[in-house]
Amino acid sequence: MIWDLAKLVYRKFTASKKQKLDDSEYIKHLDTISDQDCSAHYYLPSIGLTDNSFRNSLGYLARKRFIITDSDGVIVGNVAKARMNSNELAEQRRSTFKIIE
Q1: Least confident range of 14-18, 57-61, 78-82, 88-92
Q2: Cβ(81)–Cβ(40) under 8 Å?
Q3: C-alpha count within 13 angstroms, C-beta hemisphere, residue 80
Q4: Rounded to whole angstroms, what are the CA distances from 62 to 9, 46, 71, 78, 95?
Q5: Half-sphere CA count of 35, side-chain side, radius 13 A
Q6: Does 47 map to a domain?
Q7: Which residue range forms the structural domain that includes residue 12?
Q8: Measured between alpha carbons, how far is residue 10 from residues 15, 19, 20, 24, 47 in Å?
Q9: Is residue 45 classed exposed, middle or buried when 0-12, 13-18 and 19+ CB atoms within 10 A define those classes?
């Protein structure tokens, strides 16, 4: 019982430490990209879709690193910046507001 508790605490500590290392790597790479006047984006193909099977297919293929285009060659879905400043975040949130009369 004590051994199991010790293993649990050890796993929790190492997982937390690994997450912090991953976060610092993430920040370091985003800073490097930003230093070159570029920005990283997430590809979100299924935003706003209501057809579940289509949305699931888009999500699956996006996780496999595919970029999906429609018949005109236009990318399906949206992109979101990996790191937004407060003005960009506020603008993104305001764009989703709907006026109800």
Answers
A1: 14-18
A2: yes
A3: 12
A4: 36, 9, 18, 12, 24
A5: 6
A6: yes
A7: 1-38
A8: 8, 14, 15, 21, 39
A9: buried
Identify the bridge partners of residue 42 per DSSP, sorted by sequence position: 80
- Structurally, the chain folds into a number of domains equal to 2
**Which residue has 């992109």 as its token pair?**
79
Question: Taking the mean position of all CA atoms in its chain, how far away is CA 4?
Answer: 35
- Cβ-contact 40, 80 below 8 angstroms: no
Q: Would residue 71 count as lying in a domain?
A: yes
68 shares a domain with 25: no
- pLDDT digit string (tens) for 16-55? 655 665 678 888 888 898 899 888 888 888 777 788 898 8
Q: Quote the tokens at residue 5.
A: 């508790």
Are 52 and 14 contained in the same domain?
A: no
Tell me 70's DSSP state.
-
pTM of the model: 0.51
